[in-house]
Design goal:
There is one protein chain. The protein is an alpha+beta fold and 414 residues long. The chain folds into four domains: 3-61, no CATH class; 87-212, Beta Polymerase, domain 2; 214-318, no CATH class; 329-409, no CATH class. Helix content is 54%, strand content 7%. It is built from 19 helices and seven strands. It has helices at 3-15, 29-41, 45-52, 56-59, 63-96, 106-110, 133-142, 214-231, 236-249, 255-264, 268-281, 286-289, 293-296, 302-312, 320-337, 344-349, 353-357, 370-386, 393-409; strands at 102-104, 124-127, 145-147, 159-164, 170-174, 200-204, 207-211. The strands form two sheets. A five-stranded mixed beta sheet has the order 1-2-5-4-3. Helix 8 packs antiparallel against helix 9 (236-249), helix 8 (214-231) runs parallel beside helix 10 and helix 11 packs across helix 14 (302-312).
Length: 414
């Protein structure tokens, strides 16, 4: 890690306790921009700004630069407060009409932070039984939301996104928590088949929100991070969510069940690395949370995971090259878990129709155009390579190979 990454983690650790760093040595304008740029990449700018702006070092910084980030922080937290209120009102409207979705991540995780609105969310995720989808869809649309992708077949998709016609609320409505068709993690849904029977209510902003039971929700946070790791990575905010959830609800989590399920998805050492990052850099205490000693004894090199997630940004969106590399890592894991042997380079160049539909919506109605989409995709790769940008197909392959080694390090694959 470089100096700014170390300061970033220090500020993040302090922010989780609602504290302030005490940096006396001044930072150069470029260093401040690097620090805040890293915070923006990981969607934690309000957390970082709140932790640093009262430090002596900030008092010596360029006032205009600090004012810029102050206003960005104010805008983000104010917007989050509005979205939170809109979401809570929407949940009340659904409940009044006999629809009781299960809320996951988002507002539930924000509730764990000292200043909830500083943990910003791009959307809110809710889970509904398939048989209640039509009723839920009706209430959402009557409440001023519309389907974000008008070309989407809402009957077939496991997840439907809605955006407010007026306002900034964005809802992801899940019929299942993971895409059933995924070879890599489609079967994760089996762990949550009975989750509706163990739901709890969390109080936030003076109102109750229905969510998964604490064991299920904690395991879901791990699965969600693991899913993104199999693609192109995930950022530090997800680790914060996981360790804060463990710290708050550890006594109510069935740790032996979580460990057993993590083993079933090849994620026990992956999760051990997350715990170690939390302990070493974010003031997490595994003993206090109740994590079993046998899990704590799984010593792995967490620095490789930390370096990967710092460069990944939120959900692995750090660069297009990294995003493109997900075809290699995802297919490698799926093939090995299912005992298949095939060229992941070919799969990276020629993804399945299901994967391509996410980028080329016309394939949903015209699957026979798949070869056209492949050619379009390859041509774009070639243009990136010719222009020698930092987001080339060559770099994507290099990142993919490196991350496959990372998966072997954490025993996700052999």
């Amino acid at each position: 890690m470089n100096e700014i990454q170390e300061k970033f983690l220090e500020a993040l650790r302090v922010s989780l306790k609602n504290g302030t760093v005490w940096w006396e040595e001044p930072l150069q304008p470029g260093q401040w921009r690097e620090l805040f740029g890293l915070a923006e990449t990981h969607h934690v700018l309000p957390l970082i700004y709140e932790a640093v702006y009262r430090s002596p070092a900030a008092g010596q910084a360029d006032p205009r630069l600090m004012m810029d980030y102050k206003w960005k922080t104010v805008q983000l937290t104010s917007l989050q407060a509005l979205k939170t209120e809109s979401f809570l009102c929407l949940m009340e409207s659904l409940n009044r009409q006999g629809v009781y979705p299960v809320t996951v991540k988002g507002i539930i995780c924000r509730n764990l932070y000292p200043k909830p609105d500083c943990r910003i969310s791009g959307d809110e995720d809710i889970l509904i039984p398939k048989e209640q989808f039509h009723k839920c869809h009706q209430v959402l649309t009557e409440s001023g939301l519309k389907v974000a992708d008008e070309n989407q077949d809402t009957e077939k998709e496991y997840e439907v996104s809605y955006t407010a016609r007026k306002g900034t609320l964005y809802i992801e409505l899940h019929k299942s928590l993971f895409p059933p068709e995924s070879n890599a993690y489609g079967d994760f849904n089996r762990f949550f088949e009975q989750a509706d029977e163990h739901c709890v209510k969390i109080e936030t902003e003076g109102r109750k929100v229905r969510t998964l039971g604490h064991t299920d929700h904690f395991f879901y946070l791990i699965c969600h991070a693991f899913k993104h790791f199999l693609h192109s990575g995930f950022g530090i905010r997800q680790i914060c969510d996981i360790i804060l959830y463990a710290s708050r609800y550890g006594s109510e989590i069935d740790w032996n069940r979580v460990l057993k399920q993590c083993r079933e998805i090849h994620g026990e050492y992956f999760t051990a690395a997350l715990f170690q990052i939390g302990e070493k850099y974010l003031d997490f205490h595994a003993d206090s949370a109740g994590i079993p000693k046998k899990w704590q004894a799984m010593k792995v090199d967490e620095t490789m995971m930390l370096e990967d997630l710092l460069s990944a940004g939120i959900y692995g969106y750090g660069s297009k090259s990294r995003m493109h590399s997900s075809n290699i890592t995802l297919n490698t894991a799926a093939d090995q878990w299912h005992g298949r042997h095939s060229s992941n380079i070919l799969k990276a160049l020629f993804p399945s129709a299901g994967e391509m539909e996410k980028k080329y919506s016309y394939l949903r109605k015209h699957k026979w155009l798949l070869p056209v989409a492949w050619i379009t995709r390859i041509c774009r790769y070639c243009r990136e390579t010719i222009t020698r940008s930092d987001q080339t197909a060559t770099e994507a392959l290099q990142i993919g190979k490196h991350r496959v080694k990372l998966m072997k390090t954490y025993r996700i694959i052999k």
